[in-house]
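Why does residue order matter? Because the sequence determines the fold. Keep that principle in mind as you read this record.
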Amino acid sequence: MNTKLRIFLLSFLCCLAALLSAGAEESPVRRTDNPWVILRSFLVSYPDRIEAVDYDVSVKDWYMVISGQRLYWAGGRLLTRDDLPRFDTWRPYVDYLYPREIPDPAGFTPEVIANLNHRVVTERRGNAPRYNLAFYDALYDGRTRARIESHITRFDYLGKRVSVHERIVDPLKRVESRLQELAKKDHEVAAFIASIGSVEGYNWREIRDSKDRSNHSWGIAVDILPKNWGQKNIYWSWIGYWNDKWMLIPLDRRWMPPEAAVDAFEAEGFIWGGKWLLWDNMHFEYRPELLALRSWGYTGRVTDEP
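Structure:
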């Protein structure tokens, strides 16, 4: 089925579902602007794993089929049908749109700063909802440590040894080829490659100050650490314990890879943690669905969260 026909059918199904549910009792799962568009970003990003995107009239929600299993949109949470009655137990897996530019703290409003502080306090107290892991378990066969480690491979990357999930080896190698070509004419990229002290990949662990598993636990993220970051800041949490104004640290006081290097990673499906509000400038993770949404110019809501 070609792309235009798929888009037409999905749009038709969305309208049909709305008509069928008109006047019916409201679904317990709240809506976003265009959940089917976001689910389609998964479909095009993981075409060998996601078999379909469709609408379930009985549940009144969109779903994807992955490994023969339905995962419902559920406000971005990607849940099995059994978990839908408790949908608000979990935080949305899809909870933000990846930006083109680095958020500049010079333009942060008092509201943004207060929200960031509240988010940090909530997570450090262990009060933040956790992610439901059904999607990653299906996508990366990661229900247990033994299962995920059966898919971890170790190879040389940018002159260092790194362990990652087998699914991201080829994208990483394409990034490496891009960087090597850039380094021939871009001295900043060449200096960046030469400055790398280590590349950290797979690590079965929880996110610091959280009960959630880090994306390193699936082997789909790499941390690129320089030999020396020149007294600059590289990760918000490392400075956040003693500086409660960590979010206002100017961009020029943060260690960063060259823009061309970030572009090379993004071109192959990796997002960069330096563009997060909770910035992690050493971190790259494989999230091609977020880059697909950005390339389509999607600006709607992605969750039912305020």
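The chain is about 35% helix and 15% strand.
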